[in-house]
Amino acid sequence: MKTTLDCIPCFARQALQAARFATDDPQVQETVMRAVLREVAEMDMNQPPPVMAQWVHRRLRALTGSPDPYRSAKDDFNRLALELLPAMERQIALATDPLALAVRYAIAGNAMDLGPSMNVSVAQLRHSIETVLDSPFEGDVELLRRALNGAEHILYLADNTGEIVFDRLLIQQLPPGRVTVAVRGAPILNDATLEDARTAGLHELAEVIDNGSDAPGTLLSDCSDAFVTRFRAADLIIAKGQGNYETLSEVAAPLFFLLKVKCSLVGDRVGLSLGTHALVAP
């Protein structure tokens, strides 16, 4: 998915929010914003939006001297999700269609995203889970079910912290022994890394790897050779979140995207309104 002119004000807004989140120093905030505005003026619009986000956060980490400015928020999200997990597991155990409900919970967890907004509250997250069956949903779970039945090598591309705990619910419904979970290779926003995967207990359910990249998505050109080999070998890929959609929607691969539509440009592309919980099939 290419960057558009409508992405530019969003880059500036996200950069300012991120700078204020990472540091109280107005001098550093101004330096970040001036650097971002210069970079945006020269950026390659054929690249997907996460390329710019990756540059912004690399710059932010360098200027603040913090390798993981969102660590505290990430820990909070993981802790909250783990508190909510037992109740969701009970609901899935009672469901007539556990896979369908697990898909809905996994997408609901995508609300734990500091990319679009730094103001995600605990109340909002609880509401997202409690109202999951009342939220607008679009997608063909049966198509995913058929794909799962024939898949030998399933690659699950995780997205954010907290959300990665909810991914447990769906991974538990996938064919055992066939799933590899991939997380980011280094801190970026509140995206999940290996540390978060272990906190969520994903290593108890599947092999967990990192993709070797610090982009808030899956830029294959920026990922490790080992990850790309796994990606190419997979006969089913489940990709969580908008960042993965923005970076992989034009890649020829057996992809199913699970996301909450938070951007009107993504919504226009998939033909869905803002706030929709979506399972986007190939």
- State the CATH topology of the largest domain: Rossmann fold
Structural class: alpha/beta
Structural domains: how many: 2
Q: How would you name the CATH homologous superfamily of the largest domain?
A: Uncharacterised protein PF01937, DUF89, domain 3
The residue ranges in which pLDDT falls below 50 over 5 or more consecutive positions are none
Mean pLDDT: 89
Residue share in helix:
40-55%
Basic shape: globular
The sequence of SSEs as H and E is: HHHHHHEHEHEHEHEHEHE
User: How many distinct helices?
Assistant: 12
Multimeric status of the protein? single chain
Strand content: 5-15%
Strand arrangement within the widest β-sheet reads 1-7-6-5-2-3-4
Distance between the termini: 15 Å
Can you give a write-up of this model?
There is one protein chain. With about 280 residues, the protein is α/β, with parallel strands linked by helices. It folds into two domains: about 5-65; about 70-280, Uncharacterised protein PF01937, DUF89, domain 3 (Rossmann fold, 3-Layer(aba) Sandwich), CATH 3.40.50. Helices cover about 50% and strands about 10% of the residues. The protein is built from twelve helices and seven strands. Strands 1-7-6-5-2-3-4 form a seven-stranded mixed beta sheet, with helices on both faces. Strand 2, helix 8 and strand 3 (about 180-185) form a beta-alpha-beta unit. Helix 4 (about 70-95) packs parallel to helix 8 (about 165-170) and helix 5 packs antiparallel against helix 8. The protein is globular and about 55 Å long.
